Amino acid sequence: MAAASMNDKQALDSKSECPPLFDGTTRLYFSSRCPYAQRVWVAVKYKGLDDVECVEINLSDKPLWYKEKVYPVGKVPSLEHNGQVIGESMDLLKYLDDHFDGPKLAPFEESKKEEAAEILKYTDTFNKTGYTGLSMKGASPSEIEEVIGHAFDYLEKALGKYSSEGPFFLGEFGLVDIAYAPFIERFELAFSEIRNVDIRAGRPNLTKWLEAADTVDAYSSTKVERNTLVEIYKQMLDGDYFKKVGIVADQSKAVPPTIAVN
After folding, report:
1. Each residue of 200-253: pLDDT tens digit?
2. Which CATH code, of 3.40.47.10, 3.40.30.10, 3.30.870.10, 3.30.70.1170, is assigned to 1-105?
3. What single string gives the DSSP state of each residue in 203-214?
4. What is the pLDDT of residues 82-93, one digit of tens each?
5. For residues 89, 91, 97 and 102, what is the CA-based torsion angle, rounded to 10 degrees?
């Protein structure tokens, strides 16, 4: 399936009217360009929640009513459900699993639940390490790989542990894949196109994961066009966005936790 440039409707901006809030409709407020929001968008699609209204917010020109009437934090994603609005992507993934029907995102087996929790603890470190590498202007590919390599090697080892069961984390597509997918997608593209670094090189499990993820419609249908993402990241990196907002990791060479292999 072709990547999605946006949701079915125009993203709402400062000129858009506020939807009829708290009328019993469950609404996901998101941006197709935000990896955190994409996590929850993928989950809604994967669980087949067709009754959830997906409302795209233009992050460059956000409507005032979104912060004033919907979500005071002003960020995406957020979910309007049962008269309340909650946010934070990882919290929302759990909320969707606990309150809605459809395929479960979290694994059923106790051992895999523990494994999932361990891998998910690494998401913030992984993301910060990736953005640190992308922000290294003027660095050679080998210098960048030295900084980011341990983070992608961590994923490679985690994927390898259950590779006999399938190409995804813990074997089957689920919570961990959804948590990492939007970031791996962007890193694979931005490192390749902007920093001349191939995160797939020497990582066969990660390569298989990238190929397999694109076969999952709930994920592939949420992807932004590659050329659009490249331009977005070029602008962000030119303006040192990740440094300015404090995302870039201070200790980029910190050793990640190990994945135990039975």
Report:
1. 999 999 999 999 999 999 999 999 999 999 999 999 999 999 999 999 865 444
2. 3.40.30.10
3. -HHHHHHHHHHT
4. 999 999 999 999
5. -20
If 0-12 CB within 10 Å is exposed, 13-18 middle and 19+ buried, where does residue 162 land?
Answer: middle
Q: Which two tokens stand for residue 4?
A: 């999605």
1-105 against 110-244: fold identical = no
Cα of 217 vs its chain's centroid, Å: 15
User: Could you name the CATH architecture of 110-244?
Assistant: Up-down Bundle (1.20)
Dihedral sign from CA coordinates of 129, 134, 139, 145? positive
**pLDDT category, 10, cuts 50, 70, 90?**
confident
85 has which bridge partners? 80
Q: Where are the domains of the chain?
A: 1-105, 110-244
- Secondary structure string (H, E, C) spanning 136-204: CCCCCHHHHHHHHHHHHHHHHHHHHHCCCCCCECCECCCHHHHHHHHHHHHHHHHHHHHCCCCCCCCCH
- 146 pLDDT higher than 70: yes
3-state secondary structure of 222: coil
Give the pair of three-digit tokens for residue 252.
């980029």
Q: Which residues of 142-151 are buried (b: 16+ CB within 10 A; e: fewer)?
A: eebbebbbbb
